[in-house]
Amino acid sequence: MSVFPRISLKPEVTEHLRSVFINKEVLAAVGLQEAECRFQKLLTCLSHPPSYTCVRASTHLAPLEDIRLSLEEELKKQQKCSSSGEKLSIQIAQHPQIKDVLLLPVDGPRPVEQLSSEVVVGAQCGSAVLRGAHVFAPGIIASPKYMKAGDLVSVFSDLEGRCTRGATSFQGNKVFVGNGVAEMDRSAIFNAETPARGVGVRMVDPLFQSPSFDGVLPSMAFLQNLPSVVVGHVLGPQPGERILDMCAAPGGKTCHIAALMGDKGEVVALDRIRNKIDRICQNAQTLRLQSIKAYCFDSTQAVSIEPTEEYKAGPPFPPESFDRVLLDAPCSGLGQRPNMASTWSLKEICSYPPLQRKLFQAAVRLLKKGGVLVYSTCTVTLAENEEQVAWALKTFPCLTLQPQEPHIGAEGMPGAGLPPEQLGILQRFSPELSWHSINTTAPLSCRADRDTIGFFIAKFQKT
Ligand SMILES: C[S@@+](CC[C@H](N)C(=O)[O-])C[C@H]1O[C@@H](n2cnc3c(N)ncnc32)[C@H](O)[C@@H]1O
């Protein structure tokens, strides 16, 4: 059910996206009415959270069913301690095809009454609340003048980033995300000498309710969107191999790859941003994985200039060093859900394809002959997805497009000149195709594959 307005984008971005979704090839395939309808559904579904939470279970540490039962126990304990009167019935489902995934239903939108005391949070924080998080103090932008710990407050998300930090009220474009109990006085949030940390508002009556995973079985349950889990399986890492994850932070997919290899072999994780490397290491440590080596490095420069150089730990690497390469590329992120507003310009969105191509060139060079390259993004544009595939197949005759296992998403979108047999083996998660037709009372395992974030996966082999 739609409760939020469509995602708010700059008009130039909306027009650009319309031209992507209503391109000539799509028009020829489905007609104008259906193409326009899909585009409108896309704008609506992007502002809403998926109807379930996906957890990747650490099946390298314990059997899935044991993890499922422990998680159920932990979440029941969490409910006993919660001050909320209403209890969630906890049903954790397994995914029918993916053997390390657990699915938890999200209950929402729920009928929640708004209160007169308002806390305003940033849009990113608001989106996290809609996916089950509490409000952390750094996310709070405004609060009532005399807010004390223990006060019941309504939480609003500031969609356009217009609220002034420290304000006592805000009349701009905001969306109600639920009620909670303040865990801090206003003065501790805005007037403290050091920035406040920890939970600022504990959500007791959220608009969309799902269990909070904060500190719940951290080594066993990792929150990850379903398409991101699919990426690891499509890459198909094998024990003993050497794998490169070129854009790795915060390391969700890196850790999955290492887990799928039974932590045997070597997973090299690169990211350009230094402080994000710590997150990769923390995640690896929490999930008890030792085969991961993380480096701060610009992956466009990851091929060594000296061609005869031997492989050594750390970048740059000689050509053909890796059995498999994952390029989970930096992208415009327009598939993320929920996302109620983006202030990005068209120029910013169009800045990604050239960077993705530079990374892709390095990926192809670093891959061994016979090796597998997986390219993925969490965005919906053609330029960052199918057009990149068309470019790659033309630029690198050594690459062939491969079928994916599992293939639970839709096919690639027409518009980049790819023939149907190639579109058919691309995997595009397109929540707009089923928006409104998803029966939220149907078993989770039936609807999970369709109610995802927007995502794209292509698999290549170097011959
Ligand atoms: C989509 S995110 C990766 C998410 C990650 N694969 C995961 O599953 O947790 C893209 C990442 O690429 C990194 N990045 C951007 N440009 C890069 C470059 N030239 N070299 C290496 N990393 C880069 C960003 O810092 C960002 O962390």
Automatic annotation (TrEMBL):
S-adenosyl-L-methionine binds at C247, A248, A249, P250, G251, G252, K253, D271, D298, D328. It holds the Pfam family Methyltr_RsmB-F. The active site is at C378. InterPro entries: MeTrfase_RsmB-F_NOP2_cat (IPR049560), MeTrfase_RsmB-F_NOP2_dom (IPR001678), PUA (IPR002478), PUA-like_sf (IPR015947), PUA_sf (IPR036974), RCMT (IPR023267), RsmB/NOL1/NOP2-like_CS (IPR018314), SAM-dependent_MTases_sf (IPR029063). The keyword Ligase does not apply. Residues 146-463 form the SAM-dependent MTase RsmB/NOP-type domain. Keywords: Methyltransferase, RNA-binding, S-adenosyl-L-methionine, Transferase. GO terms for molecular function: RNA binding; RNA methyltransferase activity. GO terms for biological process: RNA methylation. Coiled coil: none annotated. SUPFAM superfamilies: PUA domain-like (SSF88697), S-adenosyl-L-methionine-dependent methyltransferases (SSF53335). CDD domains: AdoMet_MTases (cd02440), PUA_NSun6-like (cd21150). Belongs to the class I-like SAM-binding methyltransferase superfamily. RsmB/NOP family. This is NOP2/Sun RNA methyltransferase 6.
